[in-house]
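Researcher: I need the complex structure. Ligand is coenzyme A. Inputs:
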Amino acid sequence: MTTTSLDKNLARLEYDKGVAWVTLNRPEKRNALNPALSLRMLEILDEVEADDRCGVMVLTGEGTAFSAGMDIKEYFRDMKDQPRIVTIKVRRLNYEWQWRRLRYFEKPTIAMVNGWCFGGAFLPVVSCDLAIAAEDAQFGLSEVNWGILPAGNVSRALAETMRTRDALYYSMTGQLFDGRKAAEMGLVNEAVPKERLRERVRELADILLEKSPAVLKATKDAFKRVQQLDWDLSEDYLVSKQEQLLFLAGEEREEGFKQFLDDKTYKPGLGMYKRPHKK
Ligand code: COA
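Model: Output:
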């Protein structure tokens, strides 16, 4: 069974000036997501979360694909004759990295969609906090083309990022759309020419690296969680989260007060204060 073998080549991890670049690395299979890749991604997420060299994590793919989605052979066909408990385990491993871990990851995350992006690969894209695509990247909800529905929480991810008409149109027709269209529909933040992709992601990462990590973590988690709450619960949650943040990183706010109100060295509306006690 492939689920127990850990192959470090399936995804690469490189650190560069505050950014952990994580590259899905099965280009010969268009970075299709198989059980062994789930294991490798879980290992990488654990590593990156604990490593101070990472302030922002970027997820991308080697070669022509971001990812061709779930591995149709290993994730579906090979599972047909396996005991149910094996399919449950494989599925759990997959959701664990693509969604549970990634969605609430300790560090800010950016999906850099460099090429083909199909079906199951929508889930890690949506789980990342931000996403930038190459203008000519091709996206497809191809499940309908081979007889399944966008399960694996892909439909849930679509409901969060796309308008109903767009999500139904593309998941019912299986038609491709490019990076520009993905940006126009809100699935990614923006699309840039492929030759600018890495540079643009780097610029965005550098903006995030100026901010307080604790404040960023609280900000992204709070937004994602309150979508599921009514107004009363949301108010209470946000107040509690803000009070927790004062406990974890109260000095950040004090510094902001001081530089704006006393020193008059910056304007909060126009940019970030100088962080003398970066952490
Ligand atoms: N699952 C399993 N294998 C896949 C795969 C997937 N999702 N996507 C690609 N591969 C494999 C191909 O079977 C082929 O393997 P082989 O060399 O052993 O024959 C190899 O990757 C290269 O794929 P190929 O189709 O020749 O590449 P391409 O560049 O011409 O086309 C795609 C790229 C992505 C358009 C095409 O591979 C494709 O349609 N993949 C399936 C997309 C999909 O529907 N994914 C399921 C989402 S849940």
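Model: Summary of the prediction. Residues 29-30, 32, 64-65, 68-73, 116, 118-120, 142-143 surround coenzyme A (CB under 6 Å).
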